[in-house]
């Protein structure tokens, strides 16, 4: 017997009384075992962890055969290393096949101009002055789509996303360009979505519907007071009410609306009031509206290239979400179930496993941009990550006036996953983070190699999962207790238990 | 540092140059596209084959090359299959650049207002003839994988003043067209360049409206006779055979393929032997494939 290389032990601090004290270790935490290859996640006792760790270090105990049988059944230990590796390999191969068929998202940026002046915008100075995509350039971008698909041997149906700057500016030029992109997409049978600031969304709804646009994404910064203190027009005028109207008009007309709620130190404590507002608007339960959160983050990495001096590169890619923000966020969530219902946060992608009893899903690529995004900018350049658009050092080709594409640069990026990055291959947490960290940061920090890792630290990945577990487990266990109390048999059957949480084997 | 600060930036030229350069093989062969498709062609027994490109890519590269040269050396000249009246007003350079073993536009009766698509439109000859017939209320769309051919077809439409022609770069196995949006699909000596012909036929069936039909010209030979000497058959066909459009199948095989791709009915009309520009001789046929139980758009002959 040996421990499966993808078995991870998470150590989670839970509020007192959540679990029987026999589950707690010396530090008062509870251990959760997980293996994304077998799809298992279980709360275990300190004795079970000891048995597992002794086996890992080659010094197995005479553990109860029931314990070992349980660990084996759930895939945490295995009898045959080759068989275990073959299960892992089939997941990696399956992922590779899937991305060949997966749809590419082709993002069109008619211009970088935006009518808002949000202080944290990652496009920053690009949004004040920009060339425009003319008709010839739009046609050239559509010509490039099959050529890029061919270079990547990709057969999935492409889809189009309007992006900016602000794509839905209420100007004659922008309406003309957007309509041409929409019409060309419709004629080709390509689905369309739009990412917009939402201030003129209501005016664009008829056009979006005419060409079969399926989904729009807008952003709000929380309550009107906070939102209008920073997500404002260039002359400082407020935007909340305009965006609110855009959301209502679009959703009522049948468009799916994704509302990205931007959270930072300033807005996090106001989220409960914003959730009440969203509920009063009927947004939280609206069948066409889905709300999710995003954190503001450091963007200095956008300015780095592999040929900067090493120390400078490492300094510029450092930082992501501001320290302490995640903790503040979860603290606020614990006290405000309505915010949880509104956002259903799941940064570690374990929510459905914990709350619904689904299998733990392996995450082989932490960033979908490299595998599926191609952005066309109004300078005629092609980018592989929407956050890097307009920064020529990150361009990977041109589509106008001539087509050129750095397949030799882009292919390793597209195919980068947990198993192509050597440092990730040997890490047992890899299937919970997708491996490698931000590809652009890794590329820049390493001096130009995508198959390297820009990992905040394995401990940080574990902490992310443990933080979410600490948040979700009390809710899942409470649900389970409520369910058990309602059921006739007390303990409940395996099926009943999996419906209320993913812990059928909680010894 | 601002975005306009060029210090340390990599130039786009450098960036778009493949970073993973193709190293010479053990035999020292370079990445010649034609060689890639059929292996490097080197006699050295221990030679490591270079990365293979698909037949479809090889064919596309071949037609890109022809478009650059400005004249086709493949298949038949339009003068051999179309009448002088039909070719009236077509620029000479379009005729020189066009290749096709049949004349699908001869075999069908297009109506004003129809939407017609040419799968593998090349330099746009059939687009121009179709545009004349469907009139300003109709629409003619050309799809071709070769960017250079698409540019040629756009130039042809511009020179002849047709505003109802729209030419798109695209792979006809996954055509950039809305499903069920087309009345007539035509394809002149193009399906024969695809090893998986049924994949293309399924794509054609997908874009046709119920009641729509396709007219396809391709290399086909009789069931009860051996294939003509210059026709390549089955597994023996290599990438260059596909590019030259000399890969054929029997009438029965073709019928089966069409019906298996989702068409309700199929008719074949033999066009007999056709001489190619390069001296080869194949037998060609016109295939009429009808979507659903359509009775509309009957061929005129």
Largest interface: A-B, 42 and 32 residues
Task: Give the biggest sheet of chain A.
Answer: 10 strands, mixed
**Approximate shape of chain A:** globular
Percentage of residues in DSSP E strands of chain A: 5-15%
Report the average pLDDT across residues of chain A: 87
- Helices of chain B, by number, come to 11
Number of strands of chain B: 9
Q: Give the CA-based shape of chain B.
A: globular
Question: Which regions of chain A have little confidence, pLDDT < 50, spanning 5+ residues?
Answer: 489-507
- What can be said about the biggest beta sheet of chain B? 9 strands, mixed
Output the keywords.
heterodimer, A: 507 residues, alpha/beta, TIM Barrel, globular, B: 301 residues, 11 helices, 30% helix, disordered C terminus
Strand and helix layout:
The complex is a heterodimer of chains A (507) and B (301).
Chain A: E1 2-3, E2 7-12, E3 30-35, E4 40-44, H1 46-56, H2 65-73, E5 77-78, H3 81-101, E6 105-108, H4 135-151, E7 159-162, H5 172-188, E8 192-195, H6 201-210, E9 215-220, H7 224-227, H8 240-252, E10 256-263, H9 271-281, E11 289-295, H10 310-317, H11 325-335, H12 337-343, H13 351-356, H14 369-372, E12 373-376, E13 381-383, E14 395-398, E15 404-405, H15 407-414, H16 422-425, H17 430-433, H18 439-446, H19 458-486, H20 494-500
Helix pairs in contact in A: 4-5, 6-8, 10-18, 11-12
Chain B: H1 12-16, H2 33-37, H3 55-69, H4 78-81, H5 92-97, H6 104-107, E1 115-119, H7 125-134, E2 139-144, H8 147-160, E3 165-169, E4 182-188, H9 197-207, E5 208-221, E6 232-233, H10 239-244, E7 247-250, H11 251-260, E8 265-275, E9 281-290
Parallel strand pairs in B: 1-2, 1-4, 2-3, 4-5, 5-7, 6-7
Antiparallel strand pairs in B: 5-9, 8-9
């Amino acid at each position: 017997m040996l421990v499966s290389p993808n078995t991870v032990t998470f150590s989670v601090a839970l509020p007192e009384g959540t679990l029987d004290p026999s589950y707690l270790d010396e530090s008062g935490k509870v251990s959760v075992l997980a293996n994304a290859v077998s799809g298992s996640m279980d709360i275990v006792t300190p004795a079970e962890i000891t048995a597992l760790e002794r086996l890992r270090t080659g010094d197995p105990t005479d553990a109860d055969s029931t314990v070992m049988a349980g660990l084996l059944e759930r895939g945490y230990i295995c009898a045959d290393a080759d068989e275990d590796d073959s299960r892992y390999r089939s997941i990696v191969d399956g992922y590779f096949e899937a991305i060949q068929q997966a749809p590419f998202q082709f993002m069109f940026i008619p211009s970088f101009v935006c009518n808002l002046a949000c202080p944290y915008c990652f496009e920053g100075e690009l949004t004040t002055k920009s060339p425009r995509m003319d008709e010839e350039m739009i046609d050239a971008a559509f010509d490039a789509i099959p050529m890029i698909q061919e270079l990547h041997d990709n057969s999935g149906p492409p889809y189009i996303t309007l992006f900016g700057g602000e794509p839905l500016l209420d100007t004659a030029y922008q309406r003309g360009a957007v309509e041409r992109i929409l019409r060309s997409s419709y004629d080709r049978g390509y689905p369309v979505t739009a990412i917009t600031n939402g201030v003129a969304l209501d005016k664009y709804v008829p056009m979006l519907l005419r060409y079969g646009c399926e989904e729009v994404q807008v952003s709000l910064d929380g309550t009107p007071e906070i939102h209008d203190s920073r997500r404002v027009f260039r002359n400082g005028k407020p935007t909340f009410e305009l965006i609110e109207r855009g959301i209502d008009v679009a959703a009522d007309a049948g468009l799916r609306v994704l509302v990205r709620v931007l959270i930072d130190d300033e807005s996090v404590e106001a989220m409960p009031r914003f959730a009440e507002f969203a509920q009063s608007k009927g947004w939280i339960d609206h069948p066409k509206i889905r709300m999710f959160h995003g954190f503001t983050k450091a963007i200095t990495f956008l300015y780095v290239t592999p040929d900067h001096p090493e120390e400078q590169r490492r300094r510029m890619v450092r930082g992501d979400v501001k320290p302490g923000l995640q903790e503040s966020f979860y603290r606020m969530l614990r006290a405000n179930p309505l915010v949880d219902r509104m956002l259903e946060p799941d940064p570690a992608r374990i929510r459905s496993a914990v709350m619904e009893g689904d299998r733990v899903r392996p995450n082989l690529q932490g960033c979908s941009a490299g595998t599926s995004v191609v952005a066309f900018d109004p300078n005629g350049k092609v980018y592989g990550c929407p956050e890097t658009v307009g920064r020529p050092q990150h361009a990977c080709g041109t589509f106008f006036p001539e087509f050129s594409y750095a397949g030799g640069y882009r292919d390793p990026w597209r195919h980068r996953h947990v198993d192509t990055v050597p440092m990730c291959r040997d890490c047992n947490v890899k299937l919970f983070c997708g491996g490698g960290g931000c590809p652009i940061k890794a590329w820049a920090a390493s001096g130009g190699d995508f198959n390297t890792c820009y990992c905040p630290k394995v401990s940080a990945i574990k902490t992310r999962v443990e933080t979410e577990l600490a948040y979700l487990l009390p809710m899942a266990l409470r649900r389970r207790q409520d369910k058990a109390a309602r059921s006739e048999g007390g303990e409940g059957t395996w099926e009943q238990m999996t419906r209320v949480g993913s812990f059928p084997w909680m010894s | 540092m601002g975005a306009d600060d060029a210090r340390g930036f990599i130039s786009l030229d450098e960036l778009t140059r493949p970073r993973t350069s193709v190293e010479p093989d053990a035999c020292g062969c370079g990445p010649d596209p034609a060689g890639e498709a059929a292996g490097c062609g080197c006699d050295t027994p221990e030679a490591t084959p270079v990365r293979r490109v698909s037949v479809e890519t090889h064919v596309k590269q071949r037609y890109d090359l022809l478009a650059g040269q400005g004249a086709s050396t493949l298949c038949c000249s339009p003068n051999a299959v179309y009448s002088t009246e039909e070719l009236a007003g077509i620029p000479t350079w379009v005729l020189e650049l066009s290749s096709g073993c049949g004349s699908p536009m001869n075999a069908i009766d297009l109506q004003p207002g129809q939407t017609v698509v040419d799968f593998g439109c090349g330099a746009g000859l059939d687009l121009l003839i179709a545009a004349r017939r469907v009139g300003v209320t109709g629409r003619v769309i050309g799809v071709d994988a070769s960017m250079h051919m698409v540019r040629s077809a756009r130039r042809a439409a511009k020179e002849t003043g047709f505003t109802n022609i729209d030419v798109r770069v695209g792979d006809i196995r996954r055509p950039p067209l809305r499903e069920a949006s087309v009345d007539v699909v035509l394809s002149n000596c193009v399906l024969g360049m695809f090893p998986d012909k049924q994949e293309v036929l399924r794509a054609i069936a997908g874009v046709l409206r119920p009641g729509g039909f396709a007219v396809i010209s391709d290399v086909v030979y009789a069931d009860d006779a051996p294939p003509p000497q210059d026709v390549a058959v089955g597994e023996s066909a290599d990438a260059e055979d596909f590019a030259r459009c000399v890969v054929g199948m029997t009438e029965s095989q073709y019928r089966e393929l069409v019906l298996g791709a989702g068409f309700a009915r199929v008719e074949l009309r033999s066009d007999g032997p056709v001489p190619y520009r390069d001296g080869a001789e194949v037998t060609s046929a016109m295939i009429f494939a009808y979507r659903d139980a359509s009775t509309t758009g009957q061929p005129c002959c």
